[in-house]
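Technical note accompanying the year-one report. For the benefit of new consortium partners, we illustrate the data format agreed upon in the data management plan: each record pairs a sequence with a structure-token string. No post-processing was applied to the example shown here.
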Amino acid sequence: MDAPLDLFGGLVTDMAAADLPQGVSPDCQDMAFILGGVKTRPGLVSVFSPIVSGGGGNPTVNYLKTYAQPNLARTLLALDSTGTLWGETTPGVLAQIATGMVANLTANSASLFGREYIALSDGSFGLDVPRQYDGTNFDRVSQCGPGAGVTSVSDIIIGITAISRTSNVVTVTTTAPTGLVATDHVTIAGVTDTSFNGAFPIASIIDSLHFTYAQTAANAASSGGTAAPIGSLSAGVHQCAVIFVTRQGYLTRPSAPVSWTSAGNCRALVTGLPSVGTLSNIVARILAFTGAGGDNFFYTTGLEGAPQMQVLDNTALNFTVDFSDTALLAGISADPLFQLVELGECSGVIGYADRLFWWGERNKQNNWDNLTFDGGFGTGALVPLGWTPDATYFAGGFADSTGKAIWGGAYSILGDGVTATRGLITQSAVTDYNGAPRLLANTLYSARVRVRMTGALTQGTLHVHLFSASTGVSTTGVAVPAAQVTTAAWTEFIAPITPTFAFVTIPSDLVLRVYADGTPTSGAGFLVENIEIFASAEPYNTSLVRASLAEDPESYNGVSGFLNISENDGQSVRAAFLLRERLYFVKDRSCYVTNDDGVNEPASWTINEISRTVGTPSVAGVDTGEDWAVIAGRAGVYLFDGGEPVKISQEIQPLWDQINWAAGNTLWVRVDTRNKRILIGVPLGAATSPNRILVLDYRGLSNAGEIAALGSVLFSTLSGKLYAVGRSRKWCPWKITANSCTLAERSDGTSQVFLGNGGVSSAGNGKIYQLSDTQFSDDGAAINSYYTTYFFLSNDLEQSYQVRSHRKLFAYLAMYAEGAGNLNLSAFVDNEAYPAALVPLPLSSPAAKDLELPINVLGERVAFQLGTNSPGAWFKLERFVPSLLPDPWAPVRGGN
């Protein structure tokens, strides 16, 4: 009799193979499910020429994402394991966008306001500064403001060297340029001949040191006194702070303010503006002021007759201002800018409610001055602003001129081969300019420092540590010998910076010092970047999510611009997703939701718990489908559509348990809504990066409810038995090593599954692959695809066919299969551990007729495996019919 199998379900390993009902598989690999059958999965086609690293090798591709530029051009972005970002700026060709990022990282990004915002991490926490790309510029997201304010502000009062009156015209000679124009008025005071004193309109400007005004009086000549342009400044104490403006329109945190007392009715000269020589992204500087006797800062932009406080000339060191308190207070408040913090290294980012939300941030203190050296350098590009050069040992220190800075500026310490200590700079470790403490007593602190070599450095040691002359404290801190750094890349060093016993009280003269000793090699030295001070017990902001201001994606308010997701629960925020205008955050073993209340800043938004058990270990462990989300965690894969998360992977639990959870931060999830597949890249066994893709086919299931309810094996409440149906979720592992995956938007309007080659960084091939149904190999390598049937027959069918539950003779096979190459067949008698090879059958496409094969296999139950494993070989199976009867010679063995 025939026992036809025309239902080909997915993998089920959560049951013994012999107990599986008809229509599911105890073992399959590299198969794709179609309605009514199975076939060899799509093959891998290399889309671009292989990426070649700077060292000549081929890296892995750890991140892929399509970025829609403001002109709507679609650019595929790819990050390789050497820290190089590539972009498909020309169709079919990858071009280098940026280099120098930390090696072996993955990325997570969000598109907002025409830019791609990128977080760089190991999948758990950020390890490199956040970046943004607008199709042209690759910049940091947020940055510190000026490390120091202006040198001074003073009323413009110029000394007079000579003054004379002839024919009622007074000619004035000044000691310095006055900045007067022909429409100005001037106050003359203190002249020896007091008849010259008074306020007068300018008659003419002869040159920068000479002007005239009209005065009816006898001819005379005198000297001394002052000339002051009449302005609108109010008498009293004013303060001035400086703000950097980036090309994206971001306004940084202002500098420490400088104050002066104005006599009133005059103008002021601002001198010593912070230099932006090392900061290519700064397009202007803004001067913010307080009114007389006030402490609230404002600025005006020069529009509609308002005073001009924007310095658009980046080379200018001095600037003249003239404003009334009325005009100033009608301007733009700068007070909120003083609450901004510089965004640290983060693992993930998502856009929501016209804001950016970042998580997985490395903790750091934000009230030090210019620790990244992006706050500018003083005159001559020698001393970083906010730092104090040592009177004896500063020689050799200056702004890096090699262009190797991670971003913005870097501090360079160059040796001369003679001097033991070079480039010593300090800043207070006690309080900031507001009096807020930088270090707390009885607290241990550590420092992170990025260091690189310049020149052929063979000796010397870089130090970043704390020092107090009054107490004799000199901590070890970060000490980096020349042998531990290279010219090729930045290396990060982390070490305790406070004494092991911590400070019981903070010495009043405690300073942070940076210098090199050990007589660094002549003409060579150290580059220093990105110093971060943090409490040793809290290296990460595990539950904190930074939120930008609305429509201001680089401004992060340190008071109201964050959310705390179930703080101090021992878990970290790992991923985020959007669903129905709500924002969800997923931690290691829990999930939470919030939403914009339309009134408050994010710190005041309500956060609700969704699940205490469902979470993910990876920044890429969540993806969204058709109004639902998939979350991959230690317990399994869960589907969430707004209610309770539902597990959809129980049928493959033994396989899921083989994941190397020590490398769980590398797994990724991608929902292919076009082909109705969920792809999950996982590290199985001892792998430390994804070496399998576990694929869930939900073709034929129309919504989240059906995906959740229609598992591979169902239980009948009527018969009490297990059964399988065609409309069900179907799992199959694909033997593909891929570190990243994306739905790449192509020029033809389609979204194609692109995979970044995987493995450890040394095993990469530099290729980006597309899954293609017309490709029958993996870039030339065979696809070892096979499908194993259930064990014929189930007990129900034995009763139906009246063949009893004993030995059977499987005499013949008939099947409808098409493809290319040979179809390999095996029979598993009674147990999947004992295969018996059958005669392979040649395949053709289309198949002219059923394939038939006499087999004469004896056993209580038999499963069959069909597959192809040669380059270019493939198969599609739609019908499988074994013919069987009770064993005519020995229906039972009669013994064991």
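Partners are asked to follow this layout when depositing records. The two ends are 28 Å apart (CA to CA).
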